[in-house]
């Protein structure tokens, strides 16, 4: 039996039926920006990975710096429990994250780091922390969260509860999700001031109405990822910071998809000059090598919770602070410290903008947009995921469309020629399946 046949007999893939009706490709090799695949007929394909393996492999596959970091750590120890023990890779990672986090002279710094297994888990920890903070501050009834429509924060239960409750992926679980408060989706980037003012009035009224029961505001800054690759006005983030301050509510920013340069700033919050009270990071943290995430918070938040009734943050993953993951993360952040990511992201952004522009002429296309190293073709109808994916492979590009979107978030090492080919393949696949 082939690997794909064996897969279909026992595995269950994300956002897919167990029956395995969607197309499947076996990865035989990966290097740089290239995936070498084998399809169900045994035919081989060499494709450019426009997805960075769900936005994480920013430095490419088999990166020599990250490979070397993993090998060095394997030579000593790959894992130890983090309860009562510590190790240099985790300490270094915390120091790096604190040093690079958004900051401002008039705001408390993000200076305490809690390491988690995945992005969803880091969101769970952030929400727990916010509730514990409010309880320790004398507001035990503040157990709910304010978010915005179109948001996505993960697939675990508390995280699902702050995702879009109507258009999100979790409407199948209405009786199990927290009853949180949702403002309208913010106006798009470039929206006129009066539209932003109208949204501000609506959101402020909502926060005022529920202030006594809200622990925090949680949003993805500037770019909503799995909720629609939607870019909203940075001014709205400043509005949310002000609302949080006026009502004693914490501001939680989910930078899991946007962090580490993807939007053109190291963190998307920096487009608005905003510093959160709590921030979640993940995905690109290890350059896509190992699962790892982190929650950062201010010293004030950490001290308040630590002195509260529980005396501790009530969470502790088994693989928290995994040394192997931390070592690779340090190497990944070390590459970013060189600063070359800015020119990389600019090159990718300009290449995607130029290459995807042709799709604007298609009747099936509603919008083409870019931000940083993100390029999006939005259709008027649902994408035929299986057909577009297969068509893109035929044009030498790996994409994973969803809803109405065919999009790219390529590795930062992608050359101008590779970006041209990615954009060309995306446009060709859309034309082939949905018509020019």
UniProtKB/TrEMBL annotation:
Pathway: Cofactor biosynthesis; biotin biosynthesis; 7,8-diaminononanoate from 8-amino-7-oxononanoate (SAM route): step 1/1. Pfam families: Aminotran_3. The record marks 15 as: Participates in the substrate recognition with KAPA and in a stacking interaction with the adenine ring of SAM. Substrate binds at residues 54, 152, 283, 316, 400. GO terms for molecular function: adenosylmethionine-8-amino-7-oxononanoate transaminase activity; pyridoxal phosphate binding. The keyword S-adenosyl-L-methionine applies. Its cofactor is pyridoxal 5'-phosphate. Its EC number is 2.6.1.62. The modification N6-(pyridoxal phosphate)lysine is found at residue 283. It is an enzyme of class 2 (transferase). Keywords: Aminotransferase, Biotin biosynthesis, Cytoplasm, Pyridoxal phosphate, S-adenosyl-L-methionine, Transferase. Pyridoxal 5'-phosphate binds at residues 119-120, 254, 317-318. GO terms for biological process: biotin biosynthetic process. One of its GO terms (cellular component) is cytoplasm. It catalyses: (8S)-8-amino-7-oxononanoate + S-adenosyl-L-methionine = S-adenosyl-4-methylsulfanyl-2-oxobutanoate + (7R,8S)-7,8-diammoniononanoate. This is Adenosylmethionine-8-amino-7-oxononanoate aminotransferase. The gene is bioA.
